[in-house]
């Protein structure tokens, strides 16, 4: 890979309480790059995403734009330009769609909130139609669009997205795909945790495969060996 390293994570270990999930994971993401992260249940994919976002206890080295982030709290990581979209579609159910989006705005951003809101509604027209509706009244697909749009309101340099198309209709899946592609075209990078290899392979530049809390393969999507798929990916998605 010849792109400049935006994120460089090395020997990352992570725990839930006393249970260690990551055992020295290494991951590098370049500027303007989409990296697909996949693996089986229990492989550590979501835990690695949470470690990068500062949501679990972790050790090792996580450098973002050349600065060490391993000891930084989550709010500093978010303000520094790393956006995180969890699998659970965590919306504020009693707030309107528009108010949920406003919560994604970071202090001191150069572009106006109105301009970013217009971008969000242009990207996801369904949200524009339901801008005054409480987020809890949205369908699962609409909520997924909302949490993705909310993360983009902060204009992240790196967006970490966990299973964005799970349970979505084909039209919603295509909207997510277009959103990730447009983010890359503007120079942003994406870490995409996804089991739909067909969709993910269409947008990803590289694939990183996790197994037993480590990266066991890292390379181009089109050269992914079927034996790697059989050994480390087949039989379902990983946490």
From TrEMBL:
Domain ABC transporter positions: 7-237
Gene3D superfamilies listed in its UniProt record: P-loop containing nucleotide triphosphate hydrolases (3.40.50.300)
PANTHER family: ABC TRANSPORTER ATP-BINDING PROTEIN (PTHR43820:SF2), HIGH-AFFINITY BRANCHED-CHAIN AMINO ACID TRANSPORT ATP-BINDING PROTEIN LIVF (PTHR43820)
Keywords: Amino-acid transport, ATP-binding, Cell inner membrane, Cell membrane, Membrane, Nucleotide-binding, Transport
One BP term from GO: L-amino acid transport
Molecular-function annotations in GO: ATP binding; ATP hydrolysis activity; branched-chain amino acid transmembrane transporter activity
Annotated family: Belongs to the ABC transporter superfamily.
InterPro entries reported in the protein's UniProt record: AAA+_ATPase (IPR003593), ABC_transporter-like_ATP-bd (IPR003439), ABC_transporter-like_CS (IPR017871), BCAA_Transport_ATP-bd_LivF (IPR052156), P-loop_NTPase (IPR027417)
Protein name: ABC transporter ATP-binding protein
């Amino acid at each position: 890979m010849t792109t400049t390293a935006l994120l460089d994570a090395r020997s990352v270990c992570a725990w839930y309480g006393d249970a260690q999930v990551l055992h020295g994971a290494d991951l590098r993401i370049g500027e303007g790059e989409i990296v697909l992260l996949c693996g089986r249940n229990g492989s550590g994919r979501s835990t690695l995403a949470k470690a990068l976002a500062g949501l679990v206890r972790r050790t090792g080295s996580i450098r973002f734009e050349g600065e060490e982030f391993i000891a930084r709290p989550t709010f500093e990581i978010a303000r520094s330009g790393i956006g995180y979209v969890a699998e659970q579609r965590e919306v504020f159910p009693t707030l309107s769609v528009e108010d949920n989006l406003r919560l994604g705005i970071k202090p001191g951003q150069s572009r106006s909130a109105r301009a970013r809101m217009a971008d969000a509604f242009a990207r996801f027209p369904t949200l524009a139609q339901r801008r005054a509706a409480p987020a809890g009244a949205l369908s699962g697909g609409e909520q997924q669009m909302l949490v993705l749009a909310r993360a983009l309101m902060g204009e992240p340099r790196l967006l970490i997205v966990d299973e964005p198309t799970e349970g979505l209709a084909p039209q919603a899946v295509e909207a997510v795909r277009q959103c990730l592609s447009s983010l890359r075209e503007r120079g942003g990078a994406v870490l995409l945790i996804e089991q739909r290899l067909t969709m993910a392979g269409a947008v990803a530049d590289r694939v990183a495969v996790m197994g037993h809390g480590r990266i066991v393969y890292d390379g181009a999507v089109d050269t992914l060996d079927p034996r790697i798929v059989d050994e480390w990916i087949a039989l379902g998605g990983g946490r």
